[in-house]
Amino acid sequence: MGSVGAKDVPILMTPDGRRIDGRRWDELRPIHIVAGPLRQADGSAFVEWGANKVMAAVYGPREVHPRHLQENHRAIVQCRYNMAAFSVDERKRPGLDRRSQEISKVIAEAFDSVVFAEEFPRTSIDVYIEVLQANAGTRCAGVVAASVALADAGIPMVDLLPAVAVGKVAGEIVLDLKKEEDNFGEADLPMAMVPQSGRMVLLQMEGHMTRDELSKALDLGVKGCRDVHEKMKEALRTRYTTTDAGAEA
Ligand code: UDP
Fold first, then answer.
1. Is the distance from the beta carbon of residue 205 to the nearest atom of ligand 1 less than 6 Å?
2. Contact, 144 vs 44, CB < 8 A?
3. Ligand 1 mean position to 75 CA, how many Å?
């Protein structure tokens, strides 16, 4: 357990299989998605997922900046994932650190593989993800928010892109890790999936699992993604069956 004293490690799993917040191994935290809350963006979404609060805004297809990135036969997808300085307990240095750059890159690549980029040559689809409050799983909440925002912007895509993290905590494979589980657990495996085909477009792992555990974790993640997908569709249905999704005039 490194330099962390035993007294500092919370009880992550009770003998009857309850997690630190009372969930079972295969339960998601509560998820609430609002599509289209920002008036000035081409598309937007706000996601509350457990204690995570994430806003996404999409602009485009529009002129490419910087210009030299422009591609003649397709649009490019650019993404900026940022964690607000006030989003975590400990003071986070403002701005794009290496972690944010890496997350921005993998999310941009995930969306690049699902948008019909050939329909918009020489343009950029710009995705902004702002984490306002963080409690583990923010890249997944960011993908979900950005995906709903892209749909809200009318960008044609193969499908929505649900995402979730699975992991290993106190020896058990569990769905949707919260902060303590992420910090003190044995493994964290965020993923994003195209529901139609089951194709994985984002898959990362920190920590250790056996091959059997990995297989169980992937199955659990697929099930989790399907449940998140339902919530994304519901948010878009709500947006387009009400006259105004709460955006101010
Ligand atoms: N975190 C933090 N400060 C940082 C980066 C992360 O406090 O500079 C916290 C935050 O709650 C985040 C969690 O650690 O959600 C897990 O971070 P990770 O890098 O695993 O990414 P995430 O799970 O958010 O996609």
1. no
2. no
3. 30
